[in-house]
């Protein structure tokens, strides 16, 4: 007999992934319900709390995805078997789990979701908690050498923190998700430092470090490694060097990802080299260089067209938009170049300050309502910018702006993963480009 939860029929092992995702998203009355007690109950039943001999947990306001990706590439190039869990996905749910750099068939997720449902009993789980359990189950089945877990929100109470990692990473600390993590960097730093473990390295990619980071590390006995203090880098015209007390990586190719994330990833590699024999046997300078050459992720200052420049970026908070503004300011411009922006955001983001960094660089704004849960209206965005046009959807804004821009112009699409995904998904959108 089929079970009914919240008026949704429980899917079967052969149900489609779309059916499962709709079901899972309706099994808890909250989108986010921070805490590990419920999750630990189910994870223990599934026996998935030790998914690999080496686990790296990566937290931070921005830069998590690119740091995870570079680590993944370096370790794969070194001959290791690697799994990565990240979120959110851009286009397809299956992007959330990669093994050896590849996504997995939908059917595997359906089977694992069915197994979780069969064993969880009456425990209520959120969508992200289901996703985390599924990833850990898939990793354990594959018998990996290394698992890299991108933290979803904060750290201390995030679902990924049920696993004890060998190395914890904090890429950056800025204001985001303040309703859950706190209203200042000290509180946010404390939440992110919740992924630290006794006797293990904690790599901090941020130079401006809240005191709460030191306090948590001292209380539990973590070994802190600070980028900019315990390691330095020097950038030349066509290469860069990375150096710590123990290692010197010379003449590295300049990556397409932010250099701060590359510095952080190499700090993690250096800590692994000191701690783990399998890493020492496998990591080479060539593996590092290949990782740097090939590291790129969609939606991270992704240039999809030149003449005019069309750039997609998932920046959705002030820290990310400040970086984006710097990148835009470095693009070549002519006397008659105009910068256009298509933007749509979630209403729970710091819209005012996110847009403020780009206001000096954007001439004309195409503001779109985001038709998602918590999506902000174009009217709300319009409160903070001038010279704007308002649209009911991202698709409408995109189709209008590409008819207006000229070859010397710059078009930026940003504000949310949803925003970038909608532009990518427009059928045959490349055929509409100038």
Automatic annotation (TrEMBL):
A Pfam match: Mur_ligase_C
Molecular function as annotated in GO: ATP binding; dihydrofolate synthase activity; metal ion binding; tetrahydrofolylpolyglutamate synthase activity
Cofactor: Mg(2+)
CC annotations in GO: cytoplasm
Domain Mur ligase central, first and last residues per copy: 58-229
InterPro entries linked to this entry: Folylpolyglutamate_synth, Folylpolyglutamate_synth_CS, Mur-like_cat_sf, Mur_ligase_C, Mur_ligase_C_dom_sf, Mur_ligase_cen
Cleaved signal peptide residues: none
GO terms for biological process, alphabetical: folic acid biosynthetic process; tetrahydrofolate biosynthetic process
Name of this chain's protein: Dihydrofolate synthase/folylpolyglutamate synthase
